[in-house]
């Protein structure tokens, strides 16, 4: 008998594991998160919270807290390509401060700078606000086994005193990162590009860095020399904390001889920078996606199933998308209204997104390597000026999509999903920097403002939502809803005619995760058949 039984056990208390717990808690499901840390982040890797993640935060009720974090709201978020902080500028892509970042027409939210050491505790606090959720820090998982009845038994111990503990869950979710022990125990392989390069991050504090440089403030400075792009400095809190990334090669960097001060001096362009090194963290840049996302009643999410270059900030945000997709389906199964195919659709829907976003991140990374002659990049001659202009133009063109990636963030859709009813319409273009709102089944339901100032997105989440106009036949609305499987949470919502025009249908059925399951101008001949599909029956 386990010390603690629950519905869902989550191994790994990072952003994705906490997002699983928060989504489950928001839906009233019992969940325990196991993590050997104490909930604090000493070396933040995540800094940008995407539009789509902010939409989830809005539904969870924490968007204001995330938006109003301690990051300096007036800090300009430009990107600068240069030879060093006291050297030549090659090009600058302007980016507004958080205060001046406009809300896009496609969403009620905007992307936010919020480093992981603030974001993860926000998720933890929100998840633990639900009585059904527990986060067990200082808990190291020793192993697990799937039992004949489908439940999982986890053996663990308290890292402070060695006390042995056992936990039992109907489902087990591995959110334990790129080197996932859960994935290894399941025997699931990763496929893709196992090594793009080795890199090292240096977290440091240098409040006076900008004033001593040749440049005004920027979100990141990317350094290019005669041998190519070798590193970048990225803002962390907008108040003097930065992260230097030294881009290595296919050879593992020797940490024993790695001197962060020498690289900081190289980035600055010589001595004179006052800094304090806070931590050094080596890592490997890869493009890998798991061959399977689950085995039995054990599932994987986040970096445990996809690793990607941080260029574009897709990693954690993709993982939070995994968490939301998996959690609403687990809730449906535990509530008893899901069909046998609903949980199987998790891999069918999310694995193509993992492949898509990992490839997009690699494409962004390769844009950092200019296809130009770099031999004159440091020359103080007219030829050097011309070379730097050519190099800068190539870099700005090659990386534009990294900074303007709304298509990647909002435009993902579940093509050929077994739980969406296709309507025969062609897909919109899947572009990096362009996003066309569409209610084509499988897509994120479009945002539009309602007369009370709320968003259509605020209508979705608590079960299925049937969107219709005031002109809709009330009898048809009743017939569609009454055909649902017993216990399926579903309700109808009347919206202005212009919303139905945007959705291009008289009726649109939106799933609990805000994606369109079905749409049509007429009631189906057999509405129960629609519900059979969208509930995985």
Brief digest:
This protein is of the alpha/beta class and 537 residues long.
**CATH architecture annotation name of the domain at 4-70 and 110-190 and 289-361:** 3-Layer(bba) Sandwich
- Say what oligomer this is: single chain
Number of strands: 22
| CATH H-level superfamily title of the domain at 4-70 and 110-190 and 289-361 | FAD/NAD(P)-binding domain
Please state the CA-atom Rg, rounded to the nearest Å: 24 Å
Kindly provide the name of the CATH class of the domain at 4-70 and 110-190 and 289-361.
Alpha Beta
Strand content: 25-35%
Q: And the CATH topology of the domain at 4-70 and 110-190 and 289-361?
A: FAD/NAD(P)-binding domain
Helix content: 25-40%
Shape: globular
């Amino acid at each position: 008998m386990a010390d603690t039984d629950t519905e869902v056990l989550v191994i790994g208390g990072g952003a994705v594991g906490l997002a699983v717990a928060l989504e489950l808690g928001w839906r009233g499901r019992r969940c325990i998160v196991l993590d050997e840390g104490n909930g604090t982040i000493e070396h933040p890797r995540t800094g940008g919270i995407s539009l789509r993640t902010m939409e989830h935060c809005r539904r969870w009720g924490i968007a204001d807290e995330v938006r109003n974090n301690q990051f300096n709201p007036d800090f300009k978020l430009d990107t600068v390509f240069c030879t060093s902080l006291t050297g030549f500028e090659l090009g600058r892509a302007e980016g507004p401060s958080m205060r001046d970042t406009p809300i896009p027409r496609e969403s009620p939210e905007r992307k936010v700078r919020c480093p992981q050491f603030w974001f993860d505790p926000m998720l933890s606090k929100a998840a633990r606000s639900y009585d059904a959720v527990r986060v067990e820090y200082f808990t190291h998982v020793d192993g697990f086994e799937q039992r004949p009845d489908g439940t999982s038994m986890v053996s663990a111990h308290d890292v402070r005193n060695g006390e042995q503990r056992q936990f039992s869950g109907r489902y087990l979710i591995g959110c334990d990162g790129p080197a996932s022990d859960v994935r290894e125990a399941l025997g699931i392989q990763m496929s893709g590009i196992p090594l793009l390069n080795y890199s090292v991050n240096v977290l440091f504090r240098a409040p006076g860095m900008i004033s001593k440089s040749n440049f005004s403030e920027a979100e990141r400075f990317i350094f290019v020399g005669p041998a190519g792009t070798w590193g970048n400095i990225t803002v962390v809190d907008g108040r003097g904390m930065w992260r230097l990334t030294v881009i290595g090669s296919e050879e593992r960097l020797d940490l024993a001889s790695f001197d962060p001060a020498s690289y900081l001096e190289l980035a600055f362009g010589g001595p004179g920078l006052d800094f304090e090194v806070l931590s050094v963290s080596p890592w490997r840049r890869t493009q890998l996606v798991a061959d399977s996302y689950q085995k039995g009643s054990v599932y994987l999410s986040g970096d445990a199933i996809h690793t990607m270059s941080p260029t574009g900030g897709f990693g954690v945000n993709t993982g939070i998308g995994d968490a939301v997709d998996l959690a609403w389906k687990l809730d449906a199964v535990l509530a008893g209204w899901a069909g046998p195919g609903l949980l199987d659709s998790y891999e069918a829907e999310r694995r193509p997104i993992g492949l898509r976003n990992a490839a997009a991140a690699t494409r962004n990374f390769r844009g950092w390597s200019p296809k130009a002659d770099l031999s004159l990049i440091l020359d103080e001659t007219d030829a050097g000026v011309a070379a730097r202009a050519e190099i800068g133009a190539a870099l700005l063109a090659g990386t534009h999509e990294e900074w303007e990636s709304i298509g990647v963030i909002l435009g993902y859709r579940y093509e050929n999903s077994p739980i969406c009813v296709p309507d025969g319409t062609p897909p919109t273009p899947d572009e990096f920097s362009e996003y066309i709102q569409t209610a084509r089944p499988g897509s994120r339901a479009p945002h539009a403002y309602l007369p009370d100032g709320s968003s259509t997105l605020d209508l979705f989440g608590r079960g299925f939502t049937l969107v219709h106009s005031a002109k809709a036949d009330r009898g048809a609305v009743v017939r569609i809803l009454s055909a649902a499987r017993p216990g399926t949470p579903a309700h109808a919502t009347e919206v202005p005619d212009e919303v139905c025009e945007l959705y291009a249908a008289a009726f649109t059925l939106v799933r609990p995760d805000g994606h369109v399951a079905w749409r049509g101008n007429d009631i189906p001949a057999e509405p129960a058949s629609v519900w059979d599909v969208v509930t995985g029956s």
